[in-house]
């Protein structure tokens, strides 16, 4: 904690010493795409969205921002002590254990669509990446 504060103070001092100005333009928001795909519930909730996030930010942050400017996109997460946030519900459709359904999270960062190896609270998308929430069965 103290070390962290010290580091922050040193960084601030250095920035002032060099007369540097850190502006939002130097660290612009990053655009990503979110696609909602559902071929198995009776609701068939689909959607293609664009959203902005801070560089290096988490997917969940991009999702939160998306809800703030797009009323069509909705989601709910639950917190798991071991793995962070679990994506329970998207656009009104929830996964459930009885039907073995869940929202799979896929990304095209490798050039093809692959499931992410972490959840929405840990995953860090890159600029222009496409994230797919696909309602599916296990
Ligand atoms: C079975 C399983 C699932 C099943 C759970 C079915 C069920 N309800 O029983 C399903 C298929 C739903 C699943 C989904 C996902 N999973 Co999974 N899953 C597992 C697995 C193989 C075993 C979990 C288990 O049953 N343990 C036994 C019980 C007794 O322990 P438990 O801790 O209570 O188990 C619960 C949690 O693990 C939870 N869970 C399962 N996966 C995930 C993922 C996240 C992000 C969260 C928050 C919770 C969670 O569901 C279990 C049952 O309630 C583990 C790997 C492992 N060897 O442990 C991966 C694992 C937990 N899953 C993982 C991931 C990444 C996912 C997905 C994000 C994959 C994706 N890209 O879509 C999704 C979740 C998407 C979402 N909607 O948020 C990672 C989590 C890593 C991390 N730090 O985030 C693990 C560790 C696998 C890995 N990559 O190494 N998963
Ligand atoms: C789902 O999230 C919304 C906000 O996005 C919240 O208003 C609602 O209460 C949540 N529902 C559940 C069941 O957690
Ligand atoms: C992912 O898809 C987007 C279009 O939505 C594309 O611009 C981008 O290049 C793709 N990424 C990779 C690594 O293929
Ligand atoms: C999405 O889920 C559907 C239904 O389970 C499945 O047929 C399809 O292959 C999945 N798409 C991807 C990209 O995994």
UniProtKB/TrEMBL annotation:
Top-level taxon of the source organism: Eukaryota
Signal peptide positions (record): 1-17
Pfam families: DUF4430
Gene3D superfamilies for the chain: 2.170.130.30
GO cellular component, one term: extracellular space
Keyword annotations of the record: Signal
Example GO biological process: cobalamin transport
Keyword check for Transcription: no
Sample GO molecular function, one term: cobalamin binding
Name used for this protein in its record: Transcobalamin-like C-terminal domain-containing protein
Residue ranges annotated for the Transcobalamin-like C-terminal domain, each copy included: 79-137
């Amino acid at each position: 904690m103290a070390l962290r504060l010290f580091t922050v103070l040193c960084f601030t001092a250095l920035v002032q010493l060099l007369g540097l100005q850190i502006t939002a333009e130097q660290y612009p928001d990053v655009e990503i795409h979110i696609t909602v795909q559902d071929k198995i519930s009776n609701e068939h909730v689909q959607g293609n969205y664009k959203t902005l996030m801070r560089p290096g930010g988490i997917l969940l942050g991009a999702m939160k921002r998306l809800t703030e400017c797009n009323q069509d996109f909705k989601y709910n997460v639950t917190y798991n002590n071991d793995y962070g946030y679990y994506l329970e519900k998207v656009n009104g459709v929830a996964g459930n254990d009885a039907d073995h359904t869940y929202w799979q999270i896929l990304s095209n960062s490798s050039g093809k669509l692959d499931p992410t190896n972490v959840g929405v609270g840990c995953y860090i998308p890159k600029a222009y990446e496409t994230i797919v929430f696909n309602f599916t069965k296990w």
